[in-house]
Amino acid sequence: MKLVTFxxxxxxxxxxxxxxxxxxxxILPKGDLAYLLSQHIGAPAKAVVNVGDRVxxxxxxxxxxxxxxxxxxxxxxxxxxxxxKRFNAVGTQVDAIIVENDGLYEEISYPEHKPFSEMxxxxxxxxxxxxxxxxxxxxxxxxxxxxSPKDPDKIEYIxxxxxECEPYITADYRRMLENPEKIIAGIxxxxxxxxxxxxxxxxxxxxxxxxxxxxxxxxxxxxxxxxPLRTKYPQGSERQLIYATTGRMINSSMLPADAGCIVDNxxxxxxxxxxxxxxxxxxxxxxxxxxxxxxxxxxxxxPIGINxxxxxxxxxxxxxxxxxxxxxxxxxxxxxxxxxIPLTKTSSCLLCRVHDPIADLPESACINCGRCVxxxxxxxxxxxxxxxxxxxxxxxxxxxxxxxxxxxxxCSFICPAKRHLKQSIASYKKTVIAMxxxxxxxxxxxxxxxxxxxxxxxxDK
Amino acid sequence: xxxxxxxxxxxxxxxxxxxxxxxxxxxxALLPATVFGVYNFGxxxxxxxxxxxxxxxxxxxxxxxxxHRTITIQDGSAALTGLLLALNLPATVPWWMGILGGVFAxxxxxxxxxxxxxxxxxxxxxxxxxxxxxxxSMMTNFEYHGxxxxxxxxxxxxxxxxxxxxxxxxxxxxxxGETSAIALLIGAIILLWFGIIDIVIPGLYILTFxxxxxxxxxxxxxxxxxxxxxxGGGLMLGAWFMATDYVTSPxxxxxxxxxxxxxxxxxxxxxxxxxxxxxxxxxxIISNIIVPIIDKYTIPRAFGKQKEKKGGAKV
Lengths: 461, 315
What we know:
The structure holds two protein chains of two kinds.
Chain A: E1 24-26, E2 33-36, E3 46-47, E4 54-55, E5 60-63, E6 72-73, E7 78-87, E8 93-101, H1 121-130, H2 143-146, E9 157-162, H3 171-178, H4 180-193, E10 198-204, H5 208-217, E11 224-229, H6 238-246, E12 261-265, H7 266-278, E13 284-290, E14 298-303, H8 308-314, E15 324-327, E16 334-336, E17 349-353, H9 371-375, H10 382-390, H11 394-399, H12 410-414, H13 421-460
Parallel strand pairs in A: 1-14, 9-10, 9-12, 10-11, 13-17
Antiparallel strand pairs in A: 2-8, 3-5, 4-7, 5-6, 7-8, 13-14, 15-16, 15-17
Chain B: H1 19-41, H2 43-66, H3 77-87, H4 95-110, H5 123-134, H6 136-139, E1 143-144, E2 147-148, H7 152-157, H8 164-169, H9 181-193, H10 200-216, H11 223-231, H12 235-242, H13 253-273, H14 280-296
Antiparallel strand pairs in B: 1-2
C-alpha cells in the first residue's frame, strides 16, 4: 500500500484502544440544554425565540448573524427558559439560549425539500447554510462559506479528512465503520458543486478496516478515491493533509481553495448529507468520551447543547478522580476547569485523564537540540520563536516565520527541556497579528488625514 | 469532581526524552573511549578523569548555590563537560590543572554566560584551549608507557611513518580519550542509534576534511595518510562528541551543513598549515563563535512560503 505523508510530525501514544470498540450510542439529555450563539467562526447567531416560547426539536432558535455565521437549532422539545452566559471549552463566557427539556422530543415537521438531484448548486449551498453546517472537526468554520470559493471551476480536489490523527479520539473512526455510506453521500453532494473536482477520502493507515470499507463502497465511483496516509500526528492538519494528498502547499495567508482544494471532516460530511438528502439541520454529533478516568469509554451520538457532565454520567461516571479533563484530543484540546459546559457543534472528544504528566515536568533551559525543528510540520524553529515571543520581539518573530505556526504542539511534545513552546508561540502569534492589524489601521488613518490635509492645502491656494 | 483539576495549554502529553536522558546517554557513549583511555594510560588517567568531573560538578553546585539558582547538577551536563575535558587532556597533567580546567569550563565558559544552553562555545574545549595556551609545555608533554613520546599527528607532521593499525585501535600517545578511533566510533554509533546526534555535522566535517587534505596534503588521495589524519589527534572525539554539542552548533538544517563544512576546512587549514599538528579544538571553538551568524542567515523557509522575490513581492 502506497502511503503519503508530510515532513515532520510526531508519534504520541495513540490511546485509541479505550473507545475503539464502543459502538455509537445515542444519549438523551435529562437536564436543561444550553445553545451557545457562538459555536462557529464568524458573527454570533441571533436569537429568534423569546423566553417562554415552546420550541421543538429541529426548530431554528437563532439565525445566522451574517454571511460568515451559522444558525443554531433546538435539539429537544421544551421551553425557552432564559438567555444567559455559559462557559465554552476555551473558558470564555458566551451568550446562550437555555431550553428546559420537556422530555417529549417532539420534532417539527420539516418543510418539503427538493430531492438532491433536482437542486441547483445555489440551492444546495443554501440548504447547507440553512441547516447550520459548520466544520465539525474543531474549527467551526461555516461550511457554506468554504463551499463558495471565488472560482468554483478551479477547485480540483475535495478532500474528506478521515485522518483522525489526534490520539484517543475515535468518533470519526466509528462513523466510518457505522455510517460510511453517509460520508460518501456527503462528499458526493460537495462534488456536485465542483465540476472539475475529484474526491479524496484520506484515511490514516492505523484504520485499515475503515480503508477497506470505504474502498469497497467507492470501487465503482469514478470521481472518488481512497488515499491511505501514514499514521503520524498532525496528519489531519489541513495544510499537511493537502500536501500529503495533492503535493500542494499553502501558507497562513492562503485558503485551501487557493490550492484548488476543499477539506471537510467526517462529521461535517455527514451533516452535509443530513442537510441535503434528508433536510435535517445539525442537532447532534458524535463525541468520544474516553480516558482512564472514565468507567465506560464510549462514542456517543449526543444532542447539541447537552451539558457535558451528563455525558460523563452516561458513561458510568469517573472510575478514578481525573487530574485533567480535556475537550478535544491531548495534542490540541483545551483543558477544562469544569465539565459543566454545553456540547457544541465542534466538540469531538471529552478526554478524562487520571494523571496529568505536565504537572510533573518542570521547564528547564533550552539546550538547542533542534528536535523541535525536526518535528515542526511548518519548518519553523520553535525554540527561537518561543524566545522571541517571551522577549516580545515582533520583528524577529515574523522574520523567523512565526505567523506560519499551525499550533499543532509537536514542538512542546518533543522538547526534552519540557518547554511550553507552543503556548508561547501561539499566544504571541495572536499578539503580533493584533499589532499588525492596529498598525495597518493607524497607517490608513494617517494616510487619509494626510490626503485630507493636502486637499485642504490645495484649496487654500 | 476533583477540586484540583489541572488546567494548562495544549499539548497535554509529552515525549519521554528529557535533557537528563540525553546527557547520560552521551556519557554512556563516551564510556568505551574512557575505559580504553584508562587501560592505555593507567591509573593516572583515571585520577585525571575523577578530578575534572568532580571539579566541574562541584563548581556548578557552588556557583548555583551562591547565586541562589536552582541546582542543576543532576541533569548531567556538568559531569559530561568534566568527562569531555578529561578526555581532552594528557594523562600526565598535574592534579591542579584538572581542577583549574573544570572550574574554567563551568564557571567562565558556561555559568558566567547564563548556564546550560547559553554558553557560546563548548565549555570543555574552551577550558582545553585555555590550558593549552597557559601551560603549553605541560599540555603537549605526552608520555606513553613511561617514556616521552610524540603523538602520531606530530610524527606525521615531522614526516615520519606512523602505524595506522595502532592508531585505529588506540595504542599511541595522545590525550586520554582521543587515541582509539574504534572506541570513539562505538560511542558514535550509540549516539546515532538513539537519535541523540544527527549524521549531518560529523559526516560533513569528516568528508570535507578528507577532501581538503586530499587536495592540499601533498599526498593526494593516499589511504594511509588519510587514515592517519582521521584517527590521529582529536578529530574523532571532536567530530562525534564536541562538534555535535547542541548548544554550540546551529539549530537550522542549512546551518548544520555550513557548520560541518566549515569545521572540515578549518581543521584542514590548521593541521596542514598551522604551526601545531593539532587543529580540531580551535576549529570547533572558532566555528562555535560563528554559529549565531550562521543561524541568522539560514532561517528555514516555512511550509508553503515561496522564495522572496526581488522587488518585495512576497507570495
